[in-house]
Design a protein that fits this description.
single chain, two-stranded parallel sheet, 9 helices, 51% helix, globular
Length: 174
């Protein structure tokens, strides 16, 4: 994030694999990096109608103490919503054979069911040189390329994450 670099704030993203691995790494980071602002970021897997920590308590039985909602952010329903929110970047990444017309047109990408998102990405990418969308092979690269303004305009929870991080960074010394 440019704002963090400008302020001289170190930034580390730790991709962790499964949901449970991600939560374990997050709780470990809380102990090992007590002075850092640690944030858990996972797919919500379903519609979110509760506060974020409560959503995860009910869904995954994860429990944390003494943390605010700012420490927990969700990709609703799944990270693929954020990907389809920026079809221009997907087209550039996948190149020739990419079918942008296969992507959902709905402005609120967080209202699109997870299975529909996966099917749309599969159709859109099936004829590209990179091959069909594959979360492990493609997602991390794509997340680094997305236009945050495009995604934020179509994904409320993405905007909430960036708003939280920007407020933290602006409020820090530097």
């Amino acid at each position: 994030m440019k704002l963090a670099r400008k302020r001289g704030i170190a930034w580390k993203v730790i991709p962790s694999g499964s949901r449970n691995d991600t939560f374990e790494n997050f709780t470990q980071a809380l102990g090992e990096h007590r002075h850092a602002f640690n944030v858990l970021l996972v797919d919500s897997e379903e519609r979110v109608s509760l506060p974020r920590w409560e959503h995860l308590r009910r869904q995954d039985r994860w429990k944390v103490r003494n943390l605010t909602e700012d420490h927990c952010h969700l990709m609703v329903h799944t990270v693929e919503a954020w990907l389809v929110a920026d079809p221009e970047t997907l087209a550039s990444y996948y190149g020739q054979g990419f079918l942008p017309g296969s992507l959902p047109k709905r402005l609120d990408v967080e209202a699109i069911a997870k299975d529909d998102l996966i099917r749309a990405l599969d159709r859109a990418t099936s004829r590209t040189q990179k091959g069909r969308y594959h979360k492990i092979s493609h997602c991390a690269d794509l997340l680094g390329l997305l236009d945050q303004n495009r995604v934020r305009s179509r994904a409320h929870h993405c905007d909430l994450l960036f708003t939280t991080l920007e407020a933290r960074i602006r409020g820090s010394a530097g």
